[in-house]
């Protein structure tokens, strides 16, 4: 199998506007993404309780998000490749329908393996978010990409607020109700996409290389993208950041419970404030500051700031201050995704956008597995809260690697 070692140069006026979709398609894709994130997070308040009906092992509770991440890791590169080859719209619709099936199976339950199967199906078809990101890249002009990818983070933050709130509300009916609600949301997305969403990638811009068995191997897909000039180090930065970020977040609730005896409403408030902070920063600051300071500088400053804030959280003596610092941490992290995504898109040609975003999502899914395993291990083996200050060191390493990435990218 052969690969193009260097992205095909595309004139700037063609890079972001390969076709003109119907007016409002960008707004619709953001709405579809919001509904998708709500569908994912609506299970968060009830999934552990459902699992505990079949097993009292903490490992089995942890297996629910981990098997979802594993499914995403295996599938997102090939879904991205299919999107580059067959268009974004059909892959998006098929993925959304698969999500609905996964939620429905999880709601049916009856045995632990059924729950795991439902989440595995959901993870395998969870590449719709990376496909939707590729759609946004297709229809965005180069100067609009940072702003539009910041809007994706805003969508995530809103979903992180609305999803758990809806899950807690519908759980009053039954523990299974949120899963069925999520299935209904996914089917609504399928209907909206089928009726209103045009294709964003014209036939002449699609990938025509022959698919081989190697395309189904996520490790090889990551290796192919990592060989692109400038992209390998960007993927490494993204991996290091996600590893530390997920490791810290996997233990932060346990930390505030053990250190401050935090109650459920306080934890929910902390999460909602964090989500609201991300939404405000993405709406008000990222579109203004990123063009002014540049993606590389913004990314480096955000990683350093995030490291400092996490060390402060570890030493903070009061829960109220932790909530404030957690909002600051979330606000700081909001710059990293649009910065790294925009830089990565500059390293590939238009017919590789889907594969690149799929690989990026797969790397994130892998870190969703490895990061929490690391965070939980050092929390128990070293000391409570150790992921904060040890993770800060990892984030500083990511900041250093991003400085090297900028040098390599300019040299290439």
Structure overview:
- The chain has 412 residues and is mainly α.
- It has two domains: 19-197, Growth Hormone, Chain: A (Up-down Bundle), CATH 1.20.1250; 227-412, Up-down Bundle (Growth Hormone, Chain: A).
- The chain has 18 helices and no strands.
- The chain has helices at 12-15, 25-41, 47-51, 58-86, 88-108, 112-124, 128-139, 145-170, 177-196, 218-226, 231-260, 264-284, 286-293, 295-315, 319-333, 336-345, 353-381, 386-411.
- The radius of gyration is 20 Å and the shape is globular.
- The two termini are 24 Å apart.
Strand elements, count: 0
Average pLDDT across residues?
Answer: 80
How large is the radius of gyration? Answer: 20 Å
- Name the CATH homologous superfamily of the largest domain: MFS general substrate transporter like domains
Tell me the β content. under 5%
Question: Distance between termini?
Answer: 24 Å
Give the helix proportion (percent range). over 70%
Regions with little confidence, pLDDT below 50 for 5+ residues: 1-20, 407-412
- Per CATH, the architecture of the largest domain is Up-down Bundle
Provide a short characterization of the protein structure:
By secondary structure, the chain is an all-alpha fold. The chain has helices at residues 12-15, 25-41, 47-51, 58-86, 88-108, 112-124, 128-139, 145-170, 177-196, 218-226, 231-260, 264-284, 286-293, 295-315, 319-333, 336-345, 353-381, 386-411.
Based on the model shown, name its key terms.
412 residues, mainly alpha, Growth Hormone, Chain: A, 2 domains, 77% helix, globular, disordered C terminus
